[in-house]
Amino acid sequence: MSLTEATANMSLQDDNTQTKRVDYISWQDYFMAVAVLAAKRSKDPKRQVGACIVNDEKRIVGIGYNGMPNGCSDDEFPWGSKKHHFVCHAEMNAIVNSNSVVKNCTIYVSLFPCNECAKIVIQSGIKKVIYLSDKKAYKDEYKASRKMLNAAKVELEQYKTNQNKIEIDFTIEGDMMSP
Ligand SMILES: O=c1[nH]c(=O)n([C@H]2C[C@H](O)[C@@H](COP(=O)(O)O)O2)cc1CO
Ligand SMILES: [Zn+2]
After folding, report:
1. Are 67 and 43 a contacting pair, CB within 8 Å?
2. What are phi and psi of 9, to 5 degrees?
3. At 17, is the pLDDT very low, low, confident or very high (cuts 50, 70, 90)?
4. Does residue 116 carry a catalytic annotation?
5. What is the value of ipTM here, to two decimals?
6. Residues 48-105: pLDDT tens digits?
7. Which residues make up the binding site for Zn(2+) (predicted)?
8. I need a surface site. Which of 61, 85, 92, 113 has the fewest CB within 10 A?
9. Which residue has the least CA distance to atom 6 on ligand 1?
10. Is 64 in the pocket of ligand 1 (CB under 6 A)?
11. Alpha helix (H) ranges present in the chain?
């Protein structure tokens, strides 16, 4: 090793006073949190749903939440019982707005997909659904959804975590930016 190389290596030697953080969030928590955060964009007064599509390189390729179609104003279209005629579901939005291939991807959803979304999930080639809530499982449309997803061999997994809350605090982030 030349003297210059040795000097360069010395200047890169760590003092070992700091070790790697251990309380970082897992990939699963991160992707589900992205889906839940997307849901916060929804204008639906009763239910906000979010979806996040991830490929096998852990890259996010699509995000969506439930909302009115393009060109259909949130202020003019109804948010009461008639909303069902119009609103686009989170899963559909995540798929159709994706910026890359969704085939073989995993979709993280805050609510188990309905039968209509299940059809789109299957046809798009998504291979796994990780869902947070399954609160509508007793309804026929969700039974149909599960039946189709199972038949199409789309893997279903209920999201489990030991971290019930992830806090985002912009003021703390601001402090962390200082040296
Ligand atoms: O799979 C789904 N994805 C999704 O985005 N949604 C949205 C559409 C509506 O805005 C809302 C359903 O509202 P409600 O629970 O009031 O029926 O949730 C609903 C489902 C299933 O109901
Ligand atoms: Zn749906």
Report:
1. yes
2. -65, -40
3. confident
4. no
5. 0.90
6. 999 999 999 999 999 999 999 999 999 999 999 999 999 999 999 999 999 999 999 9
7. 89, 114, 117
8. 85
9. 89
10. no
11. 3-11, 27-39, 90-96, 115-124, 140-151, 170-177
Answer yes or no: is the C-beta of 68 below 6 A from any ligand 1 atom: no
Sorting pLDDT into bands at 50, 70 and 90, what band is 137?
confident
Indicate which atom in ligand 1 lies nearest the CA of residue 112. 1
pLDDT digits (tens, 9 = 90+) for 25-39: 999 999 999 999 999
The finding on whether 85 has its CB within 6 A of some atom of ligand 1 is: no
The pLDDT, as a whole number, for residue 10 is: 77
What is the whole-number distance in angstroms between the Cα of residue 89 and the centre of ligand 1?
Answer: 6
Helix (H/G/I), strand (E/B), else coil: 64: strand
Q: How far is the CA of 98 from the centre of ligand 1 (A)?
A: 20
- The 10 Å Cβ neighbour count of residue 52 is 26
Q: Could you say which of 5, 57, 76, 91 is catalytic?
A: 91
Q: Relative to the CA of 89, which ligand 1 atom is closest?
A: 5
Q: What is the 3-state secondary structure (H, E, C) of 128-175?
A: EEEEEECCCCCCHHHHHHHHHHHHCCCEEEECCCCCCCCCCCHHHHHH
